[in-house]
Structure formats: C-alpha cells, structure tokens
Amino acid sequence: MDIKSLEEKSYFLRQKTLETCLKAKTGHVTSSLSCVEILVSLYYGGFLEINPKDLEDDDRDRFILSKAQASPLLYTILADLGLYDLKELDKFAQKDGIFGVHLQHSVPGVESTAGALGHGLGLAAGIALRAKMDRKLFLTYTLLGDGELYEGSIWESLKFASHNNLNNLVGIIDRNYLCTTDFTENLVELEPLTDKIKAFGWNVIRVNGHCFKSLFEAFDNLRSRPSRKPTMIICDTVKGKGLKVMSYKPLCHGVPPKGEDIEIAKKELNI
Amino acid sequence: MRKTGLNQIYELAKKYSNVNFIGSDLGPGTLDEFRNTLPNQFFMEGISEAHIVSMASGLSSEGFKVYINTISPFFTRRAFEQIALDIYSENEDVVIYGNGGGLVYGPLGPSHTSVDDFALFHALGNMIILAPADANEMEQFIQQSYHIKKPIYIRLGKGGDKIVTSDKDIQVGKAIKFNKSENAKKIICTTGIMLQRALEISDSLNDCDVLHFSTVQPLDEESLIENCSKYEEIIVLEEHLQDGGLGTRIIQSLFKNSIQPRKFRHYNLGKNYIHTCGRQEEIFDYLKISPKYIIDEIKSLK
C-alpha cells in the first residue's frame, strides 16, 4: 500500500472507531486514535506478517496488544481484514457481541486477553525467547501504552529481554503523554525515556508515531536482526489524534465524546 | 518432597521436549544436572515473579508445559494478577510449584509463610490445588500433572516428611481414606503435611478415621459426602488461616448436601497472619494445633 492509501485507511479506521464507541457509549476512543498509524503500519504496511486465512500458522508474526484499551481499533482492523463481519462492531461491549471493552483472546486474530497493564511485554518476551531458542524466524511485536510504563513488571521484562538478546522482540511505546487524569510528566515524569530504555540494554528508535515515513524507517529491516538487542520503538503521538475536541485534554480517557462534543467529533471525522 | 518433585520435573523434561522449567533465583545447586543437560528447557531468572508468570503464559501459549518455581507467596500474593489473568483466565498449561507451604518458613515470618494460598486459589474456581503429604504423593502428582492441561498450584512441604501414602492409590482429584477403626465415630479431614499429624491423632483416639484431601480443589465431594455422612463428628485439620481453606470448603459442601454432623471442629492457623516466628512445629504448639493438644482437647471434651 502506498502512503496515500495508508492515510485513507487510517482515516477510515478513525471514523469506524469513533462510530463504534459512540454507539456503545463506551470504549477508549483517544487511546485508540493515538496508535492508528502504528497499527496501520503493522497490519497494512507489511511489517506484521500474518495470513488472515490461517491464524494458527506457526510461522506467523505475533502481535500482543498490551495497551488493551485500544481494542476498538484492533477489532476494527481485524474486521477490515475479513476475520469477521464489520457489523460485529455494532455490538461492541454489548451482551450479544463478541467484544468487551478490553481485549479478548476469543476474538479471531487476537493473540492474548489483556486489560490490566504491565503483562504484555513479559508474555511477548516468553514467546520471543522460545522462538529464538527453537530458531523460528517470526517476530513478536507488542504495543505498550506510556501510562503502562509505571508498572514495575515492565522493567522486569525489559531487563529479561535484553539479557537474553531477544532481537526477535519489538516493543512499541505509544508515547501519547497522557494517563487518565493528567499528563505523564505532571504525574511522575517518564523522560528521558529513550535513555532509560537504552540503559536497560535495548536498541531504541524514537519516531513521530503519526508519520508513516518515520514509522516505516523504524520498522524496516528489523526482520534482518540488525542489532543483537531487542528493539523498542518509542512513538511520540497525540492522544485522540484526529479529533481536536478530545486531544491534549486530561480526563478524555475511556469515554467517547459526550453532549455537544458528539456532533463536533462527528463533524471532525465526517461521519 | 521438594527434591523429589523437582527430580520428577527433570524426568518429565527428559521425556517430553515441551517441558520448560522457570525458577526465580533459587538456591545454588538446585537442579544443576537439569540446567546443564537440558539448557533449552531450564531457565533461572532473577527475582521478578510478575514477569515470570507472564513469560510462562507466553511459553504455554506456544505449546509448552511450564513449571514455575519459587517461594510460594511470592507467586500467590505478588503475582496474583498475572496468575489470574495470564494463566487462569487463559487456561494455560502452567504448574506453579510453590516452595514452603504453610509454615515451612515459619522463622522468616509472615512475608514468607504461605498460609492464605488455598483461599486465594479457591477464588479461582477451576484452578487445581494440590497439597501432597509426602514425597511419594508428590512423585505421583508431578507425573500426572504433565497430562492435565490446566493451571495447577502445588503447595510443597518442607521435605523429609514421613512417607504415609505408599500403599494408596493416588490420583489428582481423589481423596484418600485411612480407616483406623471399624467403629469409628470421628473423622479427620485434612490435607498436606497435616496428614501425618491427623494419623497420629487418630492412632491415639481409637475411634477416628482420616480422610486426606491432597487435592484441595476440585474437592472430592463424592468421597466427602459418602464418608462424612457416616460419622458423628467431623474434624478438619489444616495448615491454613481459618477462612477460605479446606475447612471453609468442607463446611460449604456439607451444608449444600444437608449433612449435619453432631459435632464439627476446625483446627487451623487462626484469623490473622502469624507474627510469632519459630519453626513450623513450634508454631503448631504455640497455636495449640499439634497432635498432643488436639488429642488432649478431644479426649477432655468427650
């Protein structure tokens, strides 16, 4: 797919994610919108090698969505890839649907149940360790939220992955600078994040997480294992990207727009 | 018991290449042969229980049978969320091999003693909870554990426990009956290494049988009901806090099945964490749940 098509796909996914959450009156709209270009790069840019027709293929790349609150976006992508009908999204977080607000393994194409933070990197590291020892060639990707980095277990897993030279493991941080109530740097500062993760023995690449050119440069070549170390791609993003009415604002977490913001948001994304 | 179990895990690993073992900073010399001969199946990590449980889930999701091992409460309390979500909720093929069940680490205090493990895992209704009484039972359980594709927790005793189960048919999920007297009016329901104490009590009382629930969950209700309906007095003896353990579960089952014994006694570790540091047997004495106290009490209350 060329960049223009990827941008069109991103726009469609933003629209669908907003629609899904508005209909359900729940769901993490802003957490999803910050990582649209990241997931589009993986799923449509050719960096995550999976065959939607054979989800059990042992050689498929694994993708662990550790920041499981971005589930409405992932669910939309998996529907768009044909794993189930797009109409299923109308039943997001409904009792007769197949999705919850967080992530369920039972959904086709989802590798792990998640929701509580700080689990995905350890799980992905277990998969990557085994793959490396068994000389399997697939990559294991995991997407972390930046708020998730407050969990101690993340730093346990960071140490483990670099100690074991898991260069088949790719961590991605959606660095959108916002937790639920405040900006991370006001809560407990995370910066200098690149230095911290480098100090834990990782190969770190920092990019604009909404720029396909930068994302492609970061993801490119990882399959040839350029470093002995695992790679962390820190993606600077905007929480709620694409929806000005919900961007750069604390307390816009886990909820779709409300009241008069609903029409503003719909207008912004042309739905 | 601990050594026997670890050796059995090693034997399984030799036989089945999908067996993986992950320890958390276990003492020097632990499983050196395993580490040296099967380095692709043996992992010794730093002190990072939350990571280890998630990592085990990752290995299991790739088709491996994973045994994880450290001091019991460091898994059960510290990594409970990882166990509940990554292992239990996903029904992963992981065995939690918990050192120092009950008061084995009594001298180290409440941080190291595992006196609430049954309660925590009773909350996870389909998790198998095993508490073998001796090395023989442990050996059987580890062998069977390979074929059970579900999360299992095994509570370990200190080791060197008197072998009392060698002539019994040991199966995960089945209680074991020790008939002591033809006209027994009492039965002690117990688990883990309290079995040896229960047998000592029953030897002294002459009218008391013993029912050993080495599988604490799922509780062998069939055996409980069949046996307990015959006795006037039911005594539960367990190395666990008062609430949420074997006793609680037995009361629930008896009530549900309308079985009302004439007398019911529950010997346990009390309501709170134990801040008295001492060896296991010393704390049993302190709490007056060692055989000599129980025998005296039961005899005096006749």
Structure characteristics:
heterodimer; A: alpha/beta; Rossmann fold; 10 helices; B: about 300 residues; alpha/beta; five-stranded mixed beta sheet; about 35% helix; about 20% strand
Provide a quick synopsis of the model:
The complex is a heterodimer of chains A (271) and B (302). By secondary structure, chain A is of the alpha/beta class.
Describe the protein:
The complex is a heterodimer of chains A (271) and B (302). In chain A, 37% of the residues lie in helices and 11% in strands. By secondary structure, chain A is α/β, with parallel strands linked by helices. Chain A has one domain (3-268): Rossmann fold. Chain A has a five-stranded parallel sheet with strand order 1-2-3-5-4, sandwiched between helices. The longest helix of chain A has 22 residues, at 3-24. The model of chain A has no long low-confidence stretch (mean pLDDT 96). Chain B folds into two domains: 2-155, Thiamin diphosphate (ThDP)-binding fold, Pyr/PP domains (Rossmann fold), CATH 3.40.50; 176-300, Rossmann fold, CATH 3.40.50. Chain B contains twelve helices and twelve strands. A seven-stranded mixed sheet of chain B has the order 2-1-3-4-6-5-10, sandwiched between helices. Chain B has a five-stranded mixed sheet with strand order 7-9-8-11-12, sandwiched between helices. The two termini of chain B are 37 Å apart. The model of chain B has no long low-confidence stretch (mean pLDDT 95). At the A-B interface, helix 5 and helix 6 of A face helix 3 and helix 5 of B.
**Helix share, percent of chain A:** 25-40%
Largest sheet of chain A: 5 strands, parallel
- Unreliable runs of chain B: none
Number of domains of chain A: 1
What's the topology here?
The complex is a heterodimer of chains A (271) and B (302).
Chain A (H helix, E strand, L loop, with lengths): L2 H22 L4 H5 L2 H9 L17 E4 L5 H10 L39 H14 L6 E6 L6 H12 L5 E7 L8 H4 L5 H7 L3 E6 L3 H8 L11 E6 L24 H8 L3
Parallel strand pairs in A: 1-2, 2-3, 3-5, 4-5
Helix pairs in contact in A: 1-3, 1-4, 3-9, 5-6
Chain B lengths: L1 H14 L3 E6 L7 H6 L4 E4 L3 H13 L3 E7 H5 L3 H9 L5 E6 L17 H6 L5 E3 L4 H11 L6 E4 L20 E3 L7 E5 L3 H12 L2 E5 L2 E3 L3 H8 L4 E5 L8 H11 L6 E5 L12 H7 L4 H10 L2
Parallel strand pairs in B: 1-2, 1-3, 3-4, 4-6, 5-6, 8-9, 8-11, 11-12
Antiparallel strand pairs in B: 5-10, 7-9
Helix pairs in contact in B: 1-7, 3-5, 8-12
